[in-house]
Design a protein that fits this description.
alpha+beta; Metal Binding Protein, Guanine Nucleotide Exchange Factor, Chain A; globular
Length: about 160
């Protein structure tokens, strides 16, 4: 039975994708700054799938419940799909019920955050420290011990089994 949280997450994601599509342009440009891994836009397009490019470089969002990584329960590490940077341990993954892979803590040095004011709301964006790629957002409604929910787009991640 769908929960209120699932329903609200689905509505929010649907509204965000509809707004982005209606504008006819990417949601936002890729994270600006100097990062150890850098490529031109053309190089990124060759290195990434269209879905990965949309999320990592244009700060897009995948449909909820669409990522195969949502049901990945093996022991291992979730890395950045763009550069292989280790981001999350499978030990911190949990089922948030939102439709996106969720974690209660990142690996040390794997991610950084910034303020995201898109869509008329303020959220905390999560991005890769090596390439600056957009990974998702972090919220304060996660489980103990951190109380955080790192809600990540599965297309921005790769899974490396232990």
């Amino acid at each position: 039975m769908p929960s209120r949280r699932n329903f609200l997450a689905f509505l929010s994601a649907t509204a965000a994708m509809a707004a982005a599509t209606a504008c006819g342009a990417p949601v936002a440009a890729a994270r600006k700054g100097t990062f150890p891994v850098q490529h031109t836009e053309a190089e990124w397009r060759k290195l990434l799938t269209p879905a990965q490019y949309y999320i990592l470089r244009e700060e897009g969002t995948e449909r909820p419940f669409s990522s195969p990584l949502l049901n990945e329960h093996r022991s291992g590490t979730f890395t950045c799909a763009a550069d292989g940077n280790a981001l999350f341990s499978s030990k911190t993954k949990f089922d948030s019920g939102t439709g996106w892979p969720s974690f209660w803590a990142p690996l040390r040095g794997g991610v950084a955050t910034s303020v995201d004011t898109s869509f008329g709301t303020t959220r905390t964006e999560v991005h890769c420290t090596r390439c600056g790629g957009h990974l998702g957002h972090v919220f304060d409604d996660g489980p103990p011990p951190t109380g955080k929910r790192y809600c990540m787009d599965g297309d921005a991640l790769k899974f490396v089994p232990a």
